[in-house]
Amino acid sequence: MTRIFYDRDADLSLIRGRKVAIVGYGSQGHAHALNLRDSGVAVKVGLRPTSKSLARARAAGLEVGPVAEVAAWADVVMVLAPDTSQPALYAEAIAPNLAAGKTLMFAHGFNIRYGTIAPRGDVDVSMVAPKGPGHRVRETYQAGDGVPALLAVHRDASGGAHALALSYAAAIGAARAGVLETTFTEETETDLFGEQAVLCGGVSALVKAGFETLVEAGYQPEVAYFECLHELKLIVDLMYRGGLGYMRYSISDTAEYGDYTAGPHVVDGHARATMKKLLADIQNGSFAQRWIQENAAGRPWFTAERARQRAHGIETVGAALRQMMPFLDPVTVDPEDGP
Question: CA-CA distance, 153 to 43, in Å (whole number)?
Answer without folding.
Answer: 22
